[in-house]
Write a structure and sequence with these properties.
The protein is of the alpha/beta class and 318 residues long. It has two domains: 175 residues, 3-Layer(aba) Sandwich (Rossmann fold), CATH 3.40.50; 112 residues, Nitrogenase molybdenum iron protein domain (Rossmann fold, 3-Layer(aba) Sandwich), CATH 3.40.50.1980. The chain contains ten helices and eight strands. The strands form three sheets. The protein has a four-stranded parallel β-sheet with strand order 2-1-3-4, with helices on both faces. A two-stranded parallel sheet has the order 5-6. β7, α9 and β8 form a beta-alpha-beta unit. The relative contact order is 0.11. The N terminus is likely disordered. Bound molecules: zinc ion. Zinc ion binds next to loops. Zinc ion (ZN) binds next to loops.
């Protein structure tokens, strides 16, 4: 029993060290403003930060935008791991037993969350289903429904979806840490304003072009397309499972030729080589597109969405 406790403690230490190490890229002088804070430093670590556990990168981005220097985030699904296929092991979930807030996307993205929350047995844990209240896109393919459930989970790759998710997260942070209510509210309002302004900029641009469809790595852009009246075609299906058959690939080739597709988008985790092959076949360029399912190129959520939108727009004007 004792041995087990020691093991658990050392695991916890490793997890929290890892979380500290991967946290801030360059958050300049954010924390220096007020020195009136409490002086209850019982340990050398900053234990006063709200401990937030999230499932994957997009959730981390939203929590960071709202919680900034008042939160310490640990991400359960490791970067570079395909989140659709992820099954957590016991050690991936150690942080949940001590976290104050747990944020997941929902819509079937993380089928394991209920079990994980039960196993954590953490009575204080505030659980946030970030997509709660969304107008979800239904899957139509019977195979997809059977395997992954009813809905397309990719709500976060939509500026409108991000607004909803950030607001749900803000409510969860306030519930867990009511003393900083105004701080979370202001940050959330700022983030939403930035999302709105990016949306308005691109809504105008997309309305002005006749071409409306683009080709991606996996079908992750359904909500983004709905926001702007666009259409996606993909090398892989919604759940990034497996490469296309020869028949599907030849259909894609035909589609690209018929629609003068000049840019094929590739994702790091969804058969980038198939995207390359396809592009070569139809004489198109390959461009990177971000799904924000994992950390990508050290960029924030807004930077990645800005890049996605600029490239999609470019592809529609070629
Ligand atoms: Zn995906």
């Amino acid at each position: 029993m004792k041995k087990w406790t020691v093991m658990l403690l050392s695991l916890l230490t490793i997890v929290s060290l890892a979380a500290c190490g991967s946290n801030n890229p360059a958050s300049t002088s954010a924390g220096t403003g007020t020195s009136a804070g409490s002086s209850d430093q019982t340990s050398t670590q900053e234990t006063s930060k709200l401990q937030v556990s999230v499932t994957f990168d997009a959730m981390k981005e939203f929590v960071e935008a709202v919680g900034q220097d008042k939160v310490e985030i640990s991400t359960i699904i490791p970067d570079g791991t395909e989140p659709h296929d992820f099954e957590p092991k016991a050690q991936d979930l150690v942080g949940l037993s001590t976290a104050k807030v747990f944020v997941y996307n929902g819509l079937g993205m993380e089928a394991w969350v209920d079990k994980a929350v039960n196993a954590a047995n953490n009575a204080e844990l505030v659980t946030v289903e970030a997509s709660k209240g969304a107008d979800a896109i239904e899957n139509t393919d019977p195979g997809e429904i059977e395997e992954h459930g009813q809905y397309d989970p990719h709500l976060w790759i939509s500026l409108k979806g991000a607004e909803l998710e950030a607001k749900n997260i803000k409510d969860g942070l306030i519930q867990a840490d009511p003393a900083n209510k105004d701080f979370y509210q202001t940050n959330c309002d700022d983030f939403v304003a930035q999302l709105e302004s990016l949306y308005n900029e691109y809504n105008k641009k997309f309305q002005s072009v006749d071409k409306k469809s683009f080709v991606t790595g996996h079908a992750a852009f359904g909500y983004l397309c709905r926001d702007f009246g666009l259409k996606q075609n993909s090398v892989e299906d919604v759940f990034a499972e497996g490469e296309p058959t020869a028949q599907q690939l030849s259909e894609l080739v035909e589609y690209c030729r018929a629609n003068n597709v000049a840019i094929i988008f590739a994702e790091e985790m969804a058969s980038p080589d198939v995207s390359q092959t396809l592009a070569k076949e139809v004489g198109a360029e390959v461009e990177t597109i971000y799904t924000i399912e994992s950390a990508e190129d050290g960029m924030t959520y807004l930077e990645r969405m800005q890049s996605n939108l600029a490239k999609i727009y470019e592809s529609l004007t070629k």
